[in-house]
Amino acid sequence: MTLTGEHMAQDKGIIVVVSGFSGTGKGTLMKRLMERYDNYTLSVSMTTREPREGEVDGRDYFFTTDEKFMRLISEGRFIEHAGYCGHYYGTPRDFVEEQLDAGRDVLLEIEVQGALQVKEKFPEALLLFVTAPSAEELSARLHGRGTEDEETIRRRLERAKDEAVCIDRYDYLLVNDDLERCTEEMHQTIRAAHRAPVRNKEFIGEIIRSLGKI
Ligand code: ADP
Ligand code: 5GP
């Protein structure tokens, strides 16, 4: 058998975790990536926070109560879950597993505690951390979005300081300066990550087996 790039994991789906401080532009980037390429599926998280104006249940999040969220945790229905600025957020397990089996790259736009849980359970997951070009720009984007009051913005910027110390646990850092450039860089980073040995154990096995036949 001749081994080619086709045998590598690019035909299998991988989990791509995307984190970054609130207001960095993660949601905007995810939207752009989905518009531009068709090999990605975005996981829809569950949260106990209130919907923002324009957010749709089942599209942006599955909005739920604390009681139901706790029940789903006890039933093991999340891949990961975390508390963030007074609310719970979690990634429903079934959908992610279904999409990976179907060969799709699944994007999880989640905060750092959840990202580290994913890495522990799925060591082959790819962890990307996105930053804004500066703290001033981050604050300006968060204010400019106009979806949170001053107190909530203050808590989110405060939380960014805790998150920053975990950045070194990620695989790659991306700067969301220009949206189009960063979208393209993210896509290229994911494509390259498909070729990493950690995601190609079967391919490596084939190489070793074929050498044994010489
Ligand atoms: P996050 O999901 O990380 O909290 P959003 O995607 O909601 O952030 O983006 C926060 C704000 O910044 C939005 O108003 C969005 O339009 C804006 N934004 C996103 N990316 C860029 C960019 N590259 N340049 C300028 N503004 C941006
Ligand atoms: P927001 O309230 O702005 O939509 O999200 C707040 C934070 O929660 C963001 O950092 C976002 O990435 C994160 N988040 C969204 N969904 C999930 C999830 O399912 N799990 C975890 N751990 N974090 C999430």
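^ adenosine-5'-diphosphate complex. Helices lie at 26-36, 66-74, 93-101, 112-121, 135-145, 150-164, 179-193, 201-212. DSSP finds eight helices and nine strands in the chain.
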